[in-house]
Every structure is written in structure tokens, then in C-alpha cells.
Amino acid sequence: MKFFQKCVIAGTLAALAPTAFARADAILAPAEHGPATGLADSAALRATVYGTPPQDMAPMPAKVPLVEMNIGMPWAQPVPEVFWFDRKLRVWFSAQDKPAPLAIVISGTGGDGNTTVLSTLRGVLYGAGYHVLTMPSPTFPGFIVSTSSTGVAGDLIQDGHDLYAAMQRIVAHLPGKVQITDIDVLGYSLGGANAAIVKSIDASEHKLNIHRAVSIEPPVSLFASVGRLDNLYAISIGSEDTGVERLYQKIYAQLANLYRASDRVEIDENFLLSAAGSVLKTDAEFSAAIALTFRINLMNVFFAGDLYAGTGVVVDPKHPPRVGDSLQQASRILRGKPFSEYFTKVFAPYYLKHRPHSTTDSLIADNRLDIIGDALRSDPDYYVQTNSDDLILDKSELAWLVNTLGSKIAVYDHGGHLGNVGDRQQASDMLDMLAGRWRGTAR
After folding, report:
1. Choice between 268 and 437, residue whose per-residue pLDDT is larger
2. Fewer Cβ within 10 Å of end Cβ, the chain: N or C?
3. pLDDT per residue over 235-276, tens digit each?
4. Using alpha carbons only, what angle is made at residue 275 by residues 269 and 279, rounded to the nearest 5 degrees?
């Protein structure tokens, strides 16, 4: 489960003693690029919150078989006591009753392997005849604990290798009766960038022979996109607790009702945005809700990274939290911390220590899709779907995607960030890309 999302809903977490903060004065945070809302306008903010209207959804099968799988990864780091429940990687598998291609789908930032968006994509893919395996983001706490070889999430290449190794182990553990004719990889948001990186790794290692990759609304620069969301949080909510409390008060009752009515264990970004969309009215409120969902995901990454790296930002490395300890004070501290602090106090110190000759600039550069730019240009089996009003992109990044992918990208006029996933056109284009039938151009 996600500690701090559960804290928001159920108020079950209490206090950790404040700890000393690691100093990283020489490390500069990634620069912010573009406005806080990226390319998004008012309509895009609403699309991001509300998603695809029911009448515009692609046809879905009436029933999709779904099996939860829990698999241990032998290379994982020792599990901190406070994460006792995440010793194995949890994924979900939907099998056809005949030979079929396998679509492996990676969740977006902080998402587990069974988010609302993954459920939508699963329905489309299963209905089209695919076996479907859905996986958590490498920034999901359950993945960090069970599968990460570092415990410090957010590096595209490192996370890509961890994902790739996990995929091999999962495929090897699928039921013997499952017959796979081909393997494709997809992902949305950060998972879209992860999917492209995984395919590039497989092109060298050939362990899975991944055929095609479809990246749905990926960031071009991970840190630039995160910087925009941090900036959005600062503008719409602010650094004081009062801003968050006001937003909680507006959506708390709706969150509580949805929580009681839901049969889902995890509370993903769509769960929170659904609650917000029913009670919030203005662009500023929608911006705040979007920013808050991202900040909650970041809190989980920050907490786990600090614990594993022993950087002492909110967790005393000499006295790590134990089962039953209160975490409310840690939650309160992390709520006010942007990604720039995760970068300067956890991420960069860890990777600078473990990667000889690296610099802060090289760490930032290595988290751009440029690192596989040649493959994206030349390999006909990479595809991208994105929106011209996506809040995680700016004009130069959208132009880079269009120029790099050429005829292998679909750019939709409207949708914000993930607001058109499951739309008839998006679903149809995605299936055409996976089948090699896509003949469209950027539009």
C-alpha cells in the first residue's frame, strides 16, 4: 500500500521524530522549464481530471480474466522492516485461451500494477486478442522494495534494467499453458519512457526479443516535467500546510465516500482526481488537485529513497522506523518537499557516489529520451502517442518528439495528460501501432 495516500484517506499514520537533514549544498537542482501547466489550457486541465467521457470510450470486453501474481526477485535489496508487506513484486496477468502475443504494460509515476488507466488499457488489449501483463512503475513503493537494485528510484536507465530483469523473471513464471507468439511493451506517462528504455535494453541483450514499444504521453525530460509539476504545486497550493488542508477539506467527504464504496486496495491518481472532479470548479482548484496527486507519489519515492540511501532527510538511518511506528511527522515534512530536494539530497548524492565520473549535469542529461534518440528515429518499431495540450511537455519537447518519431507519432489536439486514454481513436491507433498497421502522421 502507499503510506502517504492511506494517510490522506484514513488518517492512520502518526509521528516520527524529526531528524537531521543531509547537506548537499554543492548539488544544484534541475532547472525548471516552461510554465507550470506545460502546454495545458483550461480544457486540458479538465480533461486531465475527468478523463475520457463514457460515451467516447472504446469498446471493451464484458469480462477480462485477471490473476494476481506475487514473485520474489533474488537481486532485491534487504527489505526494511517498515516495508514488511512488499517483499514480492505484485503484478496482474490476463491470459487468452489460445496462442497470442503478450502486451506488457508499465504504470505511470507512483502507480501500482492495477491502476484505473492500466485497467482501461488491459480491456482494450485483451479485447484485441493479447495476453496482458500489467506492472507497477519503478517509482511505486512496492516495486522499489521488491525489485529495485538500488532503492533510489527515478533514474531511467537503472529503472529500465530493473524492469527488464523483472519482466524476464515474470515471463518465466507464467503458467505453462500460456503460449506467447510475440512480446510488445507499452507504458503511460513515466511508464511510457520506461517502455521505450526497456525496448532499447532488449535490443542489446535479446532476452525477451521485444517487438514493438508504444509510449503513451511520455515525458521527454523527466526532470523538466517533474519541475513543472513541482512549480504547479507551489503556485496552486503553496509551501504552507494551510493550502493542503484547504484542498483536503474540499474533497475529503468525497474521498471518504469513494474509499468506502471501492473494492480497490490501492488508491491511484484517478481515484483522487475522481473525487476532486466532483467537487472542484475552477482552473486553480483543478491545478491544485493535479499537483497534489503528483506530490503524494513523490512523497512515497522520497521516503523510500531516503530510507535505502541512508541520507537522513526524514528517516534517521541509525533508527529506521519499525512496524507500528507513527509516520505522520514524516508525511508532514515530505508534503512540503519538492522533487528538487529529492534530487539534491537523495538522488544525486547516491548516484554520484555509485557512478564514477558522473556529474549533476550528466545525471539530468541521462534522464532524457535523447539517450535513445537514435533508436527512436531509426527503429520502425517505436511509437508514441501524445497530446498537443499535455501539461508535462513544453513546445520544444513536443517538437522534439514530432521531429524524432516522424510518422511513428500520433499527436491529438486535446486530452491534457492522460485525459484521452481509452478514447476510441487513441485505442484504435494504439492497436494499429502494435500490429504494425499504423500509417498515420503527426496531427
Report:
1. 437
2. C
3. 877 766 666 666 666 555 555 554 555 554 444 555 566 655
4. 135
* Measured distance CA(127)–CA(63) in Å, rounded: 9
- Residue pLDDT, tens place only, 12-42: 222 222 233 233 345 767 766 667 788 999 9
Instruction: Compute the CA torsion angle 222, 225, 228, 234 (nearest 10 deg).
Output: -50
**Nearest-angstrom CA–CA distance, 85 and 1:** 8
List Cβ neighbours of 255 (8 Å cut-off, separation of 6 or more): 8, 9, 272, 275
Contacts of 217 (CB under 8 A, 6+ apart): 188, 189, 192, 385, 386, 387, 390, 392, 417, 418, 421
Amino acid at 301: V
* pLDDT in the model for residue 263: 52
Q: Between vectors from CA 124 to CA 119 and to CA 130, what angle results, nearest 5°?
A: 100
List the 100-106 sheet strands across, edge first: 67-71, 89-94, 131-135, 100-106, 180-188, 213-216, 382-387, 409-412
How is domain 54-221+367-435 classified at the CATH fold level? Rossmann fold (3.40.50)
Neighbouring residues of 357: CB distance < 8 A, sequence distance ≥ 6: none
Query: 159: which 3 cell numbers?
Result: 529503472
Measured CA to CA in angstroms, residue 436 lies from 46, 96, 408 at distances of 33, 21, 10
Q: At what angle do helices 3-10 and 283-309 cross, to 10 degrees?
A: 130
At 284, list the grid cell: 486553480
User: What's the predicted TM-score (pTM) here?
Assistant: 0.88
Q: How many CB atoms lie within 10 A of CB 171?
A: 16
| C-alpha to C-alpha distance for 116 and 409, rounded to whole angstroms | 24
Contacts 24+ apart (CB under 8 A), 56-59: 56/423, 56/424, 57/120, 57/422, 57/423, 57/424, 58/124, 58/422, 58/423, 58/424, 58/426, 58/427, 58/428, 59/127
Distances (CA, A) of 298 to 227, 260, 340, 362: 12, 25, 11, 22
d(CA 194, CA 164): 10
Could you tell me the CA-to-CA distances from 164 to 77, 117, 200, 201, 403 in Å, in that order? 17, 21, 10, 8, 28
Q: Rounded to a whole number, what is the distance in angstroms from the first to the last CA of the chain?
A: 40
